[in-house]
Amino acid sequence: MEFSNAQRAEVLVHALPYIQKYNNKIVVVKYGGNAMINEALKEAVMGDIVLLSLIGIKVVLVHSGGPEISEQLNKIGKKSEFVGGLRVTDAETMDVVQMVLAGKINKSLVQQLQMKNGKAIGLCGLDGGMIKAKQQDEHLGFVGEIVSVDTQPILDVLEKGYIPVVSSIAFDDEGHVYNINADTVASRIAGELHAESLITMTDIAGILRDKNDPSSLISVINASEAPQLMREGVIQGGMIPKVECCIDAIRRGVHRVFIIDGRIPHAILIETMTDEGIGTMFI
To answer: Is residue 14 in some structural domain?
Structure first.
């Protein structure tokens, strides 16, 4: 589809109020799921993040990496086991998690942002003592619960004009390293930074009133309505912890929180730079 110059100008004019609204504000993006595996979608996400960064928005990218961790564990003949959506993590699994999350995935995202002429720096919760944790449940092994977050390393990186790319690994005072759910990390970081918004990319359209009917999307949910929607079974299964993270971010002072469909190309731009937006917004 070819755009005329006039149409291109029109697009920029429409985006102006949004650019002004978000200028110099922090937006935290939680990146995972299908948008991370599909190469064309990944390229679109990286382009969107660099674009937002260039127009003066401070983007913090927090990523997960479940499928790649499972793939790597398979290669060494280790079966992945999940309890309540959390990966049971023994010492050997934790080594693989750290290698894949803080190493392979983190650095490949940094490289892809730079291929789009962005400036990025990879961090994990160990860097600068950013995320302290404790063991969540001994049956889960090295799965952590956040004790405290020091956002100074992120602020330092943002101040120098880089995009921080953060993997969800944390530590305790005894030197243990923990795997932490990336939604939880994104929500807590967004809260501590008092971000303008938190955008969580998922593999569904948002919160649907009827899970079999895409047209039943609930576009706005007040944080106080969420418990009722959970009781009614509208929010269920793996969406419950995601929604709880969204509500936690709102309570910690994030202005807007979105769950958007990462399978749609340029979903981040549609959400931040248009009236319609997509997905579900929590207020």
So the answer is: no
The percent of residues in the chain predicted with pLDDT above 70, rounded, is 100
Interval 263-275 mean pLDDT = 87
Number of domains in the chain: 1
Query: Is 119's pLDDT higher than 80?
Result: yes
Catalytically active residues, by annotation: 30, 33, 66, 183, 242
Tell me the C-alpha distance between 219 and 206, whole Å.
8
Q: Is residue 2 included in any domain, yes or no?
A: no
Within 78-196, residue ranges assigned H as helices are 91-98, 106-115, 152-159, 182-192
Contact 114, 120 (CB under 8 A): yes
- Euclidean distance between CA atoms 172 and 95, whole angstroms: 16
Answer yes or no: is 40 within a domain: yes
CATH number of the domain enclosing 152 = 3.40.1160.10
15: in domain: no
Instruction: Report the candidate in 66, 61, 53, 181 with the shortest Cα–Cα distance to residue 121.
Output: 61
The DSSP code sequence of 174-232 is TS-EEE--HHHHHHHHHHHTT-SEEEEEESSSS-BSSTT-GGGB--EE-GGGHHHHHHT
Express each pLDDT in 208-262 by its tens digit: 888 788 888 888 988 888 888 888 888 887 788 888 899 999 999 999 999 998 8
Residue range(s) defining the domain that contains residue 111:
25-282
| Per-residue pLDDT reduced to its tens digit, 131-171 | 999 999 999 999 999 999 999 999 999 999 999 999 999 99
* 198-to-60, 87, 256 alpha-carbon distances in Å: 9, 24, 7
